Amino acid sequence: MKAYTEYLWFNTKxxxxxVRITPLVQKxxxxxxxxxxxxxxxxxxxxxxxxxxxNESGLHGDFDKWLEKLAPHAPISQYKHxxxxxxxxxxxxxxxxxxxxxxxxxxxxKLDFGPWEEIFYGEFDGxxxxxxxxxIIGEGVKHG
Length: 144
Known about the structure:
Distance between the termini: 17 Å
Largest sheet: 5 strands, antiparallel
CATH topology: Jelly Rolls
Strand content: 35-45%
Shape: elongated
CATH superfamily: YjbQ-like
Oligomer: single chain
Mean pLDDT: 96
């Protein structure tokens, strides 16, 4: 069994943003040499998410609108967490809803997706540098 680790770094221009990271994750798999196994992708920050869904801008707008209804940013005084001097309690809640990580099968050296599936980095408290862990475990090509 082989293991490969890489960190992806993000610094979004917007406070809330969805970034398609499928090609970046596939590049990690290519570098790893692993052909059969599993790929874990997880946010290393508690106000950002990694999730799988459709790469469709209308849906991403729907996510943003829905999340803002569930956990509105303002007024910031509505959250006890913000009494500590923070203003990002809503970002913590949005991350919880969208999830921390995904685990994908790697088959023949490629992410083994269902129809329309893509991996996304969801940022809910952006404009600062954050990282995502990519951990791949499995086997390379078998010989003999």
